[in-house]
Design a protein that fits this description.
The chain contains 3 helices and 8 strands. With 142 residues, it is of the alpha+beta class.
Length: 142
C-alpha cells in the first residue's frame, strides 16, 4: 500500500496509494459525504466539497483537523488544505495540502494520496496516520 516518502524541497511529501475494489463514484463518496467519511476517519465531520468550501473533522481523541477545498473534480480529484486546530500543533490549518486522485484500476479504484508541504519533523507521524486511515477507508468501502 505505501510508497516511499519523498523529499519535496525544504518541506516533505508523504505519498501513498491503495486500490479499493469499488467504483470511483463510491470511493468519492467516502471522501465527500460526512456520514461516509466518519466510517473511516474521525468521529464527526462537516464537509462542503467545492473550491473554497470547508473540511472540518473531529476525532474521538479531541483532535480537530480543519481545511479548505482548493480543487474538486468529481469523481477524480480533490485537493484541500490540512492542519490541526490546536495551536500547540506544528501543522496549523492551511499549512499543508492533501491531493487525492482517483483512477480506474483493475479490480476497482486506485487512490493516490499526496500530503505536501509537511515539515520534516511531521512526516513520519502523518505517514503513519495515512497508512492507518487508508486501510480503514479500504475496509469501510468493502
Amino acid at each position: 500500500m505505501a510508497s516511499p516518502d519523498q523529499p519535496h524541497g525544504p518541506q516533505t511529501l508523504v505519498e501513498r496509494d491503495v486500490t479499493i475494489p469499488a467504483s470511483r463514484a463510491i470511493v468519492w463518496g467516502y471522501w465527500t459525504d460526512p456520514a461516509r467519511l466518519v466510517t473511516w476517519m474521525g468521529s464527526s465531520a462537516r464537509i462542503d466539497p467545492r473550491a473554497g468550501g470547508e473540511l472540518h473533522v473531529e476525532y474521538a481523541n479531541g483532535a480537530v483537523m480543519e481545511g479548505t477545498f482548493v480543487e474538486v473534480r468529481e469523481p477524480e480529484r480533490l485537493e484541500f488544505t490540512w492542519g490541526w486546530a490546536d495551536p500547540a500543533e506544528t501543522v496549523q490549518p492551511g499549512a499543508s495540502r492533501v491531493e487525492v486522485v482517483l483512477d480506474d484500476a483493475e479490480g476497482g479504484t486506485r487512490v493516490l494520496l499526496r500530503h505536501l508541504e509537511l515539515p520534516e519533523a511531521e512526516r513520519r507521524s502523518h505517514a503513519e496516520g495515512w497508512d492507518y486511515f487508508l486501510k480503514r477507508l479500504a475496509d469501510a468501502v468493502v
